[in-house]
């Protein structure tokens, strides 16, 4: 006799009498449209895959906690950072950037590093990469940049011509290109890489005093990277290598951890610093603004269901809590819209209500309806504001602190256009062997480029960062550094 507590049911809860045979007109007759169980199964199957992320499609995630180890309340009133020893639940998603959902984990690509803190003041998302900088610094260029990383519309192949053409015409990319083509372009595992907020953010304390801040998650496992030949071998033999490594490490009790540090810059120094502190293609020197420890993040629990937790997890740098706010970084400003909008398209307008995204504190607002609204939709409560019926109201104490802005409304670039100093400094910091591998990786990546014009333009950027850098790439490609670049 069937156990009534373990009966197979339809999606509307009715018991299923036969799940092996569809309903037909006789043993050979056509299938009947009245077989609603069959229709529901097929219709649901057709819709089991939500659209993959446009970027960061392939990823892995885990649950954990963040524990404060240093009192920084003089800088921020964020409650989850309010006392040493305080723990906040977290969910972290690691990812590659350009590849599709089924791509390999071990390709040369930046890695996404997204952290969701489930705080008592709502969720806080820190959505960055394993690099402290990015390829571009204005969100208006982002769709074009990502197009170059995706497949050619005619051949449906990756297109090195587009990649290097865009980079050579966007010299601000040089710093990130140098990191990407270095040893750190292929991390050994998700556990053996740093994470960064990348952008500049603003912290405000209980007295309303603000500072600019940058985030650095330093891996406690140490940095490890993959040799290019081993990475290529793994890409063919085990394309899910990083996903498997993270899951098995946590399963076996080898729980990875990162120590979070911040750099703090007084507001007024942003106007005089030698690089624009809001330009995401640049770093702040740690000699100028030393790292200050904040706390430690540990990942200790694997997802129970990949789709429900990793695939449906939604992150946005606009998911903020009191005490933490944004900066005028142009790339960040664009992400504030684009990320939430991507989630509304991909997962649904009520994506924040899904268990993996839902805040641990009670949500009280006047948003109603929308596809897949699966709670009581506010019941019979008041549904507008202001109102006279005692609904939730604003709390002025939680308004973000103001900062001064000035200027004309116009499409303008950043004032600072030195794209070479930091890339050159990074090159010179590398050992001889690291520089040789960097150059070899670049040569290998640029050889398929069809136009010498593109190669020479990019060589010029390398040369301006460091003459040896450009010369060695040129020699490897059988070219010479352009004479006008050498003279300049």
From TrEMBL:
Q: E.C. number, please? A: 1.11.1.6
Question: What domain of life?
Answer: Bacteria
Reaction catalysed by this enzyme: 2 H2O2 = O2 + 2 H2O
EC class, as a word, reads oxidoreductase
Q: Where is this region: Disordered?
A: 1-29
Domain Catalase core as annotated: residue spans? 9-393
Query: Which SMART domains does the record cross-reference, listed alphabetically?
Result: Catalase (SM01060)
| Stated family | Belongs to the catalase family.
UniProt protein name: Catalase
């Amino acid at each position: 006799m069937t156990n009534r507590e373990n009966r197979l049911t339809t999606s509307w809860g009715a018991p299923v009498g036969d799940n092996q045979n569809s309903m037909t007109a006789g043993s050979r007759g056509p299938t009947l449209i009245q077989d609603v169980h069959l229709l529901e199964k097929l219709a649901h199957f057709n819709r089991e895959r939500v659209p993959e992320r446009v970027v960061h499609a392939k990823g892995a995630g885990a649950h954990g906690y963040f524990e404060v180890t240093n009192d920084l309340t003089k800088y921020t009133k964020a409650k989850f950072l309010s006392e040493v020893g305080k723990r906040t639940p977290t969910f972290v998603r690691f990812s590659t950037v350009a590849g599709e959902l089924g791509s390999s984990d071990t390709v040369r690509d930046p890695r996404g590093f997204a952290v969701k803190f489930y705080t008592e003041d709502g969720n806080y998302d820190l959505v960055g990469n394993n690099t402290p900088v990015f390829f571009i610094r204005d969100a208006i260029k982002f769709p074009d940049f990502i197009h170059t990383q995706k497949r050619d519309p005619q051949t449906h192949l990756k297109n090195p011509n587009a990649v290097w053409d865009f980079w050579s015409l966007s010299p601000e990319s040089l710093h990130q290109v140098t990191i990407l083509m270095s040893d750190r372009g292929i991390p050994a595992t998700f556990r053996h890489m740093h994470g960064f907020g990348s952008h500049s953010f603003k912290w405000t304390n209980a007295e309303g005093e603000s500072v600019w801040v940058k985030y650095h998650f330093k891996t406690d496992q140490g940095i490890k990277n993959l040799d290019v030949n081993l990475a290529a071998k793994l890409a063919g033999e085990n394309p899910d290598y990083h996903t498997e490594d993270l899951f098995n490490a946590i399963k076996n009790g080898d729980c990875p951890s990162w120590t979070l540090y911040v750099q703090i810059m007084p507001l007024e120094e942003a106007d005089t610093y030698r690089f624009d502190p809001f330009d995401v293609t640049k770093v702040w020197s740690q000699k100028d603004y030393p790292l200050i420890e904040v706390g430690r993040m540990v990942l200790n629990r694997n997802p129970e269901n990949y789709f429900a937790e990793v695939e449906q997890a939604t992150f946005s740098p606009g998911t903020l809590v009191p005490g933490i706010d944004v900066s005028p970084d142009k790339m960040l400003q664009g992400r504030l819209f684009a990320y939430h909008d991507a989630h509304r398209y991909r997962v649904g307008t009520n994506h924040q209500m899904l268990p993996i995204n839902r805040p641990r504190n009670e949500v009280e607002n006047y948003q109603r309806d929308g596809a897949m609204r699966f709670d009581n939709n506010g019941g019979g409560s008041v549904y507008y504001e202001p109102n006279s019926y005692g609904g939730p109201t604003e709390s002025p104490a939680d308004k973000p602190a103001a900062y001064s802005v000035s200027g004309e409304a116009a499409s303008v670039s950043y004032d600072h256009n030195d794209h070479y100093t930091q890339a050159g400094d990074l090159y010179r910091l590398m050992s001889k062997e690291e520089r040789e591998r960097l150059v070899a990786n670049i040569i290998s990546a640029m050889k398929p480029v069809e136009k010498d014009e593109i190669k020479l333009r990019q060589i010029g950027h390398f040369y301006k960062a460091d003459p040896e850098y450009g010369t060695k790439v040129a020699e490897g490609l059988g070219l010479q550094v352009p004479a006008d670049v050498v003279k300049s």
